[in-house]
Automatic annotation (TrEMBL):
Record Pfam families: ABC_tran
Name of this chain's protein: ATP-binding cassette domain-containing protein
SMART domains, per the entry: AAA
Domain of life per record: Bacteria
GO MF terms, alphabetically ordered: ATP binding; ATP hydrolysis activity
Organism lineage string: Bacteria, Pseudomonadati, Pseudomonadota, Gammaproteobacteria, Oceanospirillales
Entry function: Part of the ABC transporter complex HmuTUV involved in hemin import. Responsible for energy coupling to the transport system.
Length: 253
């Protein structure tokens, strides 16, 4: 369980204090316009940045109090870009720094459709392939594998993990993430620009604007046409709005 107690930052980029819980079993989507503070919030949730006020706790202990090795086994961050100085084979990079067995690594490669690329150098991958490698690496870091025996309560944080994926890979990844939450008791938190993916797969959504969380709740409650039109300054196709199921976000011509 990840818990935020009045977590905020004052130095640029500033973030208005926020308190909430990210419970196991849920997929949370963080959405908002460019520059709203989504990546900033994710770095706070991961512990890579320490808040100026308040604290983020994992299982009751502030993130900065955790032993680095133990923390790495309990929470993983998938950044937006893969930046590497070496042309590691995919399989080696995915396993790097983890205690995963060869069988576990193969299982994780298979989950992300990466087995055909396992021997390829990571500097010779497409954008979408690189993105899937980064997710696979995070899953290995958390101890996922063939046995799927990862202790419940692991936290997986992802910054725009679908931005380079085709629609089939988007669906497979979002189903995998939701399944990890629901079936393996993980906390999964995804920054997403695609509001339809957030609407379809997230249990809860946080909407950010100018360094502040301005709405939180189910996709139906947060992703309303009026709110999205105002926050994103976008004109939506009203004929696509639905009240009986997950909202559908379509731009007006
Ligand atoms: N190191 C920094 N120093 C000062 N301002 C920063 C710094 N990093 C980011 N910012 C600013 O803070 C704001 C929030 O940035 P952040 O990357 O968190 O936004 P975001 O919601 O993830 O945006 P995007 O959707 O474009 O990825 C932006 O206005 C950005 O320009």
């Amino acid at each position: 369980m990840l818990t935020l107690y009045n977590v905020g930052v004052t130095a640029p980029p500033a973030f208005v204090p926020i308190s909430d819980r990210l419970p196991p079993g849920e997929l949370l989507a963080i959405v908002g316009p460019n520059g709203a503070g989504k990546s900033t919030l994710l770095t706070l949730l991961s512990g890579y940045r320490r808040p100026d006020r308040g604290s983020v706790c994992l299982d009751g202990m502030p993130l900065h109090g955790w032993n680095a090795r133990q923390l790495a086994r309990r929470r993983a961050l998938v950044a937006q870009k893969l930046t590497l100085g070496f042309d590691w084979p995919v399989r080696d990079l995915v396993a790097l720094g983890s205690t995963a067995s060869p069988d576990d690594v193969e299982a994780v490669l298979s989950m992300l459709d990466l087995q055909p690329l396992a021997a390829r150098g990571v500097q010779h991958l497409s954008g979408g392939e690189s993105q899937r490698v980064m997710v696979a690496r995070a899953l290995c870091q958390l101890g996922l594998g063939r046995s799927m025996s990862m202790p419940s309560g692991g936290v997986l944080l992802l910054d725009e993990p679908t931005s380079a994926l085709d629609i089939g890979q988007q669906q497979r990844l979002m189903r995998l993430l939701r399944g990890l939450a629901e079936m393996h008791g993980m906390t999964v938190c995804c920054v997403l620009h695609d509001l339809n993916l957030a609407a379809r797969y997230a249990h809860r959504v946080w909407l950010l604007e100018r360094g502040e969380r301005i709405a939180a709740g189910t996709p139906e409650a947060v992703l309303t046409p009026g709110c999205l039109a105002r926050v994103f300054g976008a004109e939506l196709d009203a004929s696509a709005s639905r009240t009986d199921q997950a909202p559908l976000v379509l731009l007006a011509p």
